[in-house]
Structure formats: structure tokens, C-alpha cells
From TrEMBL:
Signal peptide: none annotated. The keyword Oxidoreductase does not apply. It comes from the Eukaryota. InterPro entries: PEX11. Belongs to the peroxin-11 family. It is a multi-pass membrane protein. The keyword Transmembrane helix applies. This is Peroxisomal membrane protein 11B. It comes from Vitis rotundifolia (Muscadine grape).
Amino acid sequence: MNDTVDKLVIFLAKRDGIDKLVKTFQYVSKLVHWHVEAAHPDAAQRAKQWEVAAGLSRKAFRSGRFLTGFNALRRNPGSTPTFRFLAVLANAGEMVYFFFDHFLWLSRIGVLDAKLARRMSFISAFGESFGYIFFIISDFIMIKGGVEQERKLITTSTDKSTDDVKASVRKIREDRVMRLMAVAANVADLIIGVADIEPNPFCNHAVSLGISGLVSAWAGWYRNWPS
């Protein structure tokens, strides 16, 4: 119990930890609003207010986040020309997303003209979706490479029970799980982004958005939870 509490404290001390918690509030309240809208309009209105407040607080908390993409490129540009190219495209899209998200937040709280909100939302969502496509491609390439490396280790090792082989296989599998969580989060966020770029009945439905938001939040929660 104490270990879990310690891990929770560490998790919530991170910017990403707080973001995933508030994101959970945001999309749970969206689903609650959809579920009770017809039968309990007062409760639905309170849920909607909770959703909006959570969304705006996340935007405020992400101030300056666009610099993380630049830092990621500076510190880890990629091991091969292909990965460097994918990293530039992915992080550039994410930087556009977080940068224009500042203006979206300011327009929604009344600091800037409210008419800018729709335009800023489109640009931000477009950058987000663009970046996620290349993050997903990169993760699938890495997952494929990990599977091939694992097979090679298992088939070529004369003694598969050695600690070194077991440790290498375990590390590959742990990395694969983390990358699958990243893919799940990015696909979910891509659906949310598409809902802003090109509104459609599937992506813009409250259930689609709510489930996508929770998948993204909980996959990020898993990836950021202290080991």
C-alpha cells in the first residue's frame, strides 16, 4: 500500500502525470454528459462544465510544452536517416499542436478574440494529427525490429536459459508493450484530432471522443507510472 502511494505521489509530481489525471476527468465528464443529457439536464450541465474546465486547465498546464519537441530532436534525433526524418516530421507536428494550442486557450478564455478559436483549433489539431501519424509509423517500425531481434536471440542462442538472453528478451518485450501503449494513445488522439479537422458522425460522437480520450489518458498513465 505504501509503495503504491509513493508511486502515485511520484506520478502526480510529473507534468504528464497531472495531465493524464485531468484528461481522465475531462473525458469521463464528456461521457457522463452524453449519458444523462436527456434524463437529467441539470446533471448533464454540471458534467459539461467539468469537461470544459478540465480541458481549459490542461491547456494552461501545457504552456511551453511545444519546446519539448525541439528538445527531443536535439537530444535524440534518431539512429538512422529514416528515423531522423520521421522524428523531425513527428516532433514538428507536435510542436505546431502545442504552440497554437496556446492561442486556442487564450481565445476560449476571452483574452483573444473568440472568433480565433475555430481557426486555432484547426491548425492545432492538424499539427497534432500530422505528428501522430509519424509517431505511429516510427513505433510500428521499432516494434517490428524488436520482434525480429527477439526471434534472432531465441533461435541463435545455444543456451536460451542464460541470464543474459532472458534479460535481453525481457527488455525487448517491455519496450514492445510501451510502444503498443504509445500507438494506442496516438491512434486515440488522432481520432480526436480528426474530429476537429474534418467533423464526421463517427469521430465527433460523444462516445467515440470519450473512449478515445480515456484510452489516450490511461495508456499515457501506464507509460508514465513509476516502475
